[in-house]
Amino acid sequence: MVIQLLLYLILAIVVIAIAIDLIPVWKSWFGRIHIGRYSDKRVWSRALTVRGLSWLSRMPAIKVTDNTRLIVLDMLRGNYTKSAIQHWQEAALLLGLNEYLRHNDDPAARQSIMKFLDSKLDGGGRWKEQPKHVDTAILAYAILSLDFIDSDRYEPAIHAIWELIREHLGGDGTVNYRQSMKGYRYVDTVGFICPFLVAYGLKYDQPECIDLAVKQIVEYEQYGMLESHHIPVHAYKVENRVPLGLYGWGRGLGWFAVGLIDAWSQLPPGHRHKPVLERSVETYARAVMRFQHPDGSWKWTVTRGECRPDSSAAATLSWFLLGASAIDRISAECRLSAETAMQYLMGVTRRSGAVDFSQGDTKDIGVYSMLFDVLPFTQGYAIRTINRYLNTFHKKGEPR
């Protein structure tokens, strides 16, 4: 009897383990039935937003590994997902939803955002879970960007991020990605910290924060770009400026893009750093457009046409190019490129409103995910881009 019960228990464990492996596969397969059926940008925008709001209240777990078998073991070991990965997912959704609320009166959406903020911050405006990594700066930036809240309520949390960034300053005067990796500078960090530093510097009259953001960008341009093509490498070593990882990693292009465009666009006309960053925006815009494919996508390795397209690259670069279209010299081509990228994203949107085929989380310098699925980060930037586009360019009578 005991042996029989033990066998039943083992069988139940095996069935549960198999089910945990199969459920994500089944969900992806089922979700992709009738993918890409959106043709009206306003309908698409609404579908994206509804899906984004649902994720804000219950964020999908973003996997650390590419392992698709015996996932339960990763869960038990704590290797299934990490909070730092979630921060930039949450930030992108907040940024997208804030852009939506700038042009739409939606009390339910505002309420969902307030509920999310309450889950992250206590009544005194402090983080419930103290951040350890600079990834959180993009989430703090998203909170600072919310138009309908009193951001002063969250001042302790915002100030804590500036202190965290200062703790990550290296001897060269730029910011580490991790305290355990002080000798490297990652392209991700440009996207994580630079928009926050500019927003914080302007709000609290701290010019050294803006100086740091510009230094982070300019030094990455100097040491982390492929000469003549102006596309970033994944990272470089501070000691000897040796490039590390891949030149042309799609989401790496996106990280540099969102850091640059949000830093530049926040600076008021006449600010001493505005012309410097504007030249960077123009140069980078011309560079990324050269690697866009006719269908509007960028491959996960943008220099190789044989690679799979990455939706996270398309979403972030479309936001960048839409912002860059404010520069008269490149306005028309940037707008066309952004529109083509949005058309691609519409074609990979599930009927549920979730944008599909984003590359999974990167494992290390030069070690990239081969899983392509939904990613809240991509969703957020798609929401952000389409709402800005519809309310800037999409006038009555224009093609949808």
Automatic annotation (TrEMBL):
Q: Which GO terms describe its molecular function?
A: hydrolase activity
Q: Which residues cross the membrane?
A: 6-26
In terms of Gene3D superfamilies, this protein maps to: 1.50.10.10
GO annotation (BP), single = carbohydrate metabolic process
Q: Which InterPro entries match?
A: 6-hairpin_glycosidase_sf (IPR008928), 6hp_glycosidase-like_sf (IPR012341), Glyco_hydro_88 (IPR010905), PolySaccharide_Degr_Enz (IPR052043)
Q: Which UniProt keywords apply?
A: Hydrolase, Membrane, Transmembrane, Transmembrane helix
Name the chain's protein: Uncharacterized protein
Q: Provide the species name.
A: Paenibacillus rhizophilus
